[in-house]
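lol so apparently i was supposed to do this last week
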Amino acid sequence: MIRVCPQTRLLVLTGAGISAESNLKTFRDSGGLWENQRVEDVATPQAFESDPELVWRFYKDRWLQAQAASPNPGHLALAKLEDWLGNNFSLITQNVDGLHSAAGNTRVIEMHGALRTCLCTRCETRFYLEEVDLDPALPRCPKCQGELRPDIVWFGELPYRMQEIDDLLQNCDVFLVVGTSGVVYPAAGFVMTARYLGAKTIAVNLQPTKGPSFFDEFHQGRAGEILPRLVDSWMAG
Ligand code: OAD
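anyway here it is w/ 2'-O-acetyl adenosine-5-diphosphoribose bound
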């Protein structure tokens, strides 16, 4: 078993699976978010151009669901890990629900954006959703009246903080991947980079990976059950 000690530089990548036990839908499991919604209708810049009201309805709804959700034992285990490892810990998430911060993690990179914020398409100011009037079907910027857009990285857009992510991938000893199907790039390629550069790689997922695996260690099951056990075993030395 791969060991983690206080000197280990640990990098974590999470996906929708870690929030499944907080009752938030994943994207590609049955009953998932994309099942009753075409990705192209809600998660591309073109969709926002052609029907911004539909896109806003989708993300307002997801924001309400995220606000009603609480971190589960999987999130809490990662917060405990950050307390233990300090600056040697970093977390990249593809999730936009804010549950890692709610659990207490501070060293978090939200590479696909966040539901709690939005962005003016004209003056580019970022606002918390609480700061804007969400009643209109198409919310407007409180500063310049430009159209606001959800602060979400859509298909065809560049994920946030890629330079920092690249540095972290180059400088980690262990790369832990939790609850992601590994089909959306660039995140899907991080494990190959980390492994190629010498990191040990671990995956936690409900399902085994399809195709060739780049993981040295695989734990099959629910993140909320596996992560607390894994973290406790590392901390016990
Ligand atoms: P997916 O829905 O593609 O994958 C969820 C993964 O979590 C699957 O591999 C499941 O087997 C696993 N899973 C489900 N429940 C779990 C549990 N309780 N414990 C552990 N694993 C579990 O979600 P992502 O991989 O996050 O991007 O999707 C990646 C990106 O695709 C998202 O960030 C989103 C979407 O398009 C954008 O919106 C930009």
